[in-house]
Known about the structure:
Blueprint: H1 13-18, E1 27-33, E2 37-40, H2 49-57, E3 62-67, E4 70-75, H3 76-79
Antiparallel strand pairs: 1-2, 1-3, 3-4
Amino acid sequence: MLLSEDVSDSTPPAVAKRYRSPQARPTVTDIYSSDSGWTRAPGAPRLTLTLAAELRAQGVTMVRTRWRFTTKEFTIASLIPPDESGR
C-alpha cells in the first residue's frame, strides 16, 4: 500500500532546489508586503504550498526563510504557479 503525501502541505519545489536538498523544510521568519515592508512572521510557520497561497491572498509578495544555518528569500510568485486567472 502506498501512502500519498498531501501536495498542498509539501515544501514548494523551488525551495528544495534553492536549498539544494529535497529534505529542506524551512520556516518563514519574515514576510514582506508593499504596505508594511518586512515584518516578523508570527510563530515561524513551516513554508508549504498552502501557506504560500494564504500569504499571497493576504497581499504578501516575499518571504524570508531559514533552514539549518541558511537564510534565503523567495517571491511568492516563484513558489506557487499562477491560477487560471493569471494571478
